[in-house]
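Final report, closing paragraph on structural work. Over the funding period we assembled a curated collection of sequence-structure pairs, and we close with a single example.
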Amino acid sequence: MAALRLVGIAGSFNRPSKTYALVEDVAVRAAQRYGFDRTVYDLHDVGPSLGHALWRKDLDDQAKGVIDAIVSADVLIVGSPTYKGSYPGLFKHLIDLIDPDELRAKPIIITATGGGDRHALMVEHQLRPLFGFFMSHTLPTAVYGSERDFTDYRVSSEPLSKRIGEVVSELGAFFPADDAILAAAE
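Its predicted structure, as stored:
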């Protein structure tokens, strides 16, 4: 039986990126716990055709490949940097090129990063409604990380690490953890 696929998408162009680091951390933990095959992308991986595309058919093969991976994933981790209280426009444009039925009932972990606590509700006021429109299953715990939660582009704070653990556990409602994988991880 083929492993289930987890895809992470970080809505950032920056490399290195705290947003990418957060999505990757969640992806690694989920893959370890549930045995997912995982891939994480950022907007660099989508490529330059995104900014020129009015329709999905206008994307180049690289960008189409990322969207195909997103819509065919068994579970998604979506991460966004916070700009002026919301997600970046090109990240939203990427999501706009996905047909709502393609994400229907898909479990999604929503994450975001920002400079401080002032942006923490972005996950609730921006990302959750966005994926609610797609009728996706956003997991109850949303994860937000601020500057103080990272050291050298790695998750370094205990509260953020604990929150990541909580949301990864919530995936168990969709994908029972493989006891053999859990035993090997310990």
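The chain has seven helices and eight strands. The longest strand covers residues 107-114. We thank the funder for supporting this effort.
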